[in-house]
Amino acid sequence: MANVTLKVEGMSCGHCVSAVEKAVTGAGASGSVDLAAGKVTVQYDEKKVSLDAIKGAIEEQGYDVV
Amino acid sequence: MANVTLKVEGMSCGHCVSAVEKAVTGAGASGSVDLAAGKVTVQYDEKKVSLDAIKGAIEEQGYDVV
């Protein structure tokens, strides 16, 4: 399992937190969002999911992974 | 029909716009949100809906009508 903290720009409210968490879950990982810090901590199995896929899922929701 | 523009605090993103518009529609009115201005213009039939009910529906979603 890998644990990575991503810096994500554009999250402004609770709806955004839900959208990002759903994106992470949908990509096959689990994650928790720190809205105030603009950070998303993701935990995933590197054998099953790539970090790029997780980042892509977040960006598809309209946020920038920086 | 009445047309009222409400000042609403706490709307920060497109999800908020959707949530507020849905609240207004759910209250039996129609509305459009100006996110940048923090304003919601509602149109409603005073015989069927009260302005208080519309404000209440918006506040139930976590926003302040000021």
Topology:
The structure is a homodimer of 66-residue chains.
Chain A: E1 2-9, H1 14-26, E2 30-34, E3 39-44, H2 51-60, E4 64-65
Antiparallel strand pairs in A: 1-3, 1-4, 2-3
Helix pairs in contact in A: 1-2
Strand order of the largest sheet of chain A: 2-3-1-4
The computed structural class of chain A is alpha+beta
Count of alpha and pi helical runs of chain A: 2
- Helix share of residues of chain A? 25-40%
What is the CATH class name of chain A?
Alpha Beta
User: What is the count of structural domains of chain A?
Assistant: 1
C-alpha Rg of chain A, in Å? 10 Å
Biggest sheet features of chain A: 4 strands, antiparallel
* Total beta strands of chain A: 4
Could you give the distance between the termini of chain A?
Answer: 22 Å
CATH structural fold name of chain A: Alpha-Beta Plaits
- The coarse overall form of chain A would be globular
CATH architecture of chain A: 2-Layer Sandwich
Strand content of chain A: 25-35%
N-to-C series of helices and strands of chain A: EHEEHE
Keywords (chains A, B): Metal-binding
Domain HMA (chains A, B): 2-66
Protein name (chains A, B): Copper chaperone
Organism (chains A, B): Paenibacillus catalpae
Walk me through this protein's architecture:
The structure is a homodimer of 66-residue chains. Chain A is α+β, with helices and mostly antiparallel strands and 66 residues long. Chain A has a single domain (2-65), classed as 2-Layer Sandwich (Alpha-Beta Plaits). Helix content of chain A is 35%, strand content 32%. In chain A, helix 1 packs antiparallel against helix 2 (51-60). The first copy, chain A, is globular and about 30 Å long. The mean pLDDT of chain A is 97. Chain A binds chain B through residues 10, 12-16, 19, 62, and chain B through 10, 12-16, 19, 62.
